[in-house]
From TrEMBL:
This is Low molecular weight protein antigen 6 PH domain-containing protein. It comes from the Bacteria. InterPro entries: CFP-6_PH. Keywords: Membrane, Transmembrane, Transmembrane helix. It comes from Terracoccus luteus. Residues 70-122 form the Low molecular weight protein antigen 6 PH domain.
Length: 212
């Protein structure tokens, strides 16, 4: 865990934005839940339920939740929170020195690179910093894309590393103008006890089912 703080770093990173993740992650989660119920319900109704099957399905659901549904990024007034499968990263705007988006949203702070598992890059678009498309930026910022009438319906928002990277740098610049370096410098990465506990319980259930 790396931590950098200024004298007034007692205030924790305030996260007031919604979770940013691709819509496909939610769809995959729903599909997996439905498929799992189709397997679990008949198995539970039969006498002498197959514990190995049940434990395997439960573990598969936990893995889908951890690696597909759970990962996201949350933008706040003072910084960003990256929710990854087993860890959570909290970064305030002043501590971020570089923003990348080659394969996923990547933030460099204190010489360490933090990747947002829940914000993948769009391979069809140039990575951030090279001909970033204005329309993509406005999808995140909520502005009106170039060439679109003010009263026209806005395009469907798409969460991708390129657009979120642009928003991150915009908020970093806004924070510098607003507070001039007075924002607390926080760069923390910590294990999430709930995520670790759920994974450990699912693995233990499978081990017990195999032994029994």
């Amino acid at each position: 865990m790396g931590t950098t703080s200024s004298p007034d770093a007692g205030d924790r990173l305030s996260v007031d934005g919604k979770a940013l993740r691709p819509g496909s992650a939610t769809v995959v989660g729903v599909v997996c839940v439905v498929a799992s119920l189709l397997l679990l319900v008949p198995a539970l109704r039969r006498p002498g339920a197959n514990l190995v099957l049940i434990a395997s399905v439960v573990l598969a659901l936990v893995l889908v939740w951890l690696f597909v549904v759970r990962p996201c990024a949350r933008l706040g007034r003072e910084g960003i929170t990256l929710v990854n499968p087993l860890r959570t990263v909290e970064l305030t705007w002043p501590v971020i020195t570089e923003v990348r988006s080659k394969w996923a949203l990547e933030l460099v702070a204190d010489g360490r690179r933090f990747t947002a598992w829940g914000v993948p890059a769009d391979p069809k678009r140039p990575k951030y910093g090279r001909d970033l498309l204005l329309m993509g930026t406005n999808r995140v910022r909520g502005g009106t894309p170039a060439g679109q009438a003010a009263g026209a319906a806005s395009p469907r928002r798409k969460v991708e590393a390129q657009t979120v990277a642009a928003e991150v740098e915009a908020r970093m610049a806004a924070d510098r103008r607003r507070k001039d370096g007075r924002t607390a410098r926080i760069a923390e990465q910590s294990w999430d006890p709930v995520a670790v506990g759920v994974l450990a319980a699912a693995l233990a259930f499978l081990v017990v089912a195999l032994v029994v």
